[in-house]
């Protein structure tokens, strides 16, 4: 299981075509790896050994994928983009290659308690 599935991302982004499915699948893998690096702590597992993702991680991963799609097109300085029916604005204040506001969401749930 992934932090977000292709279908979940497409639903959130309002994408109904299969045109970019390969790119989105690759970004899901990359984003999960980046999420873990930024979090600096492994995801928890339940008694059956299944990964337990933090609250809000799916939405944060969707933001990260959308940001990567925008910046892969060479629009690193862009602060607003609309993909399908999903619109997003991003700060150009980056940390770990993502908007600082996105990174803060990951770090908030990655702290050791």
Description:
The protein is of the alpha+beta class. 48% of the residues lie in helices and 14% in strands. The strands form 3 sheets. Strands 1-2 form a two-stranded antiparallel sheet. A two-stranded antiparallel sheet has the order 3-4. A hairpin with a 2-residue loop joins strand 3 (80-83) and strand 4. Helix 2 crosses helix 3 (57-72).
The chain-level structural class is alpha+beta
Helix run count: 4
C-alpha geometry: globular
N/C terminus separation = 25 Å
Q: Give the averaged pLDDT, no decimals.
A: 85
List low-pLDDT spans: none
Record field, number of beta strands? 6
What does the largest sheet look like? 2 strands, antiparallel
Q: How are the strands of the biggest sheet laid out side by side?
A: 1-2
- Percentage of residues in DSSP E strands: 5-15%
Name its key features.
single chain, 113 residues, alpha+beta, two-stranded antiparallel sheet, 4 helices, 14% strand
Give the arrangement of secondary structure elements:
Elements (H helix, E strand, L loop, with lengths): L5 H8 L7 H19 L4 E2 L5 E2 L4 H16 L7 E4 L2 E4 L4 E2 L2 E2 H11 L3
Helix pairs in contact: 2-3
In short:
The chain has 113 residues and is α+β, with helices and mostly antiparallel strands. Helices cover 48% and strands 14% of the residues.
């Amino acid at each position: 299981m992934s932090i977000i599935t292709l279908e979940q991302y497409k639903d959130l982004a309002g994408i109904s075509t299969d045109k970019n499915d390969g790119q989105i699948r690759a970004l899901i893998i990359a984003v999960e790896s980046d999420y873990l690096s930024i979090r600096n702590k492994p995801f928890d597992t339940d008694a059956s050994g299944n990964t337990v993702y933090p609250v809000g991680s799916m939405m944060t991963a969707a933001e990260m994928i959308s940001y990567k799609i925008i910046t892969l097109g060479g629009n690193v300085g862009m602060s607003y983009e609309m993909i399908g029916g999903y619109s997003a604005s991003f700060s150009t204040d980056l940390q770990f290659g993502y908007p600082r506001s996105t990174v803060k969401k990951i770090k908030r749930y990655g702290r050791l308690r």
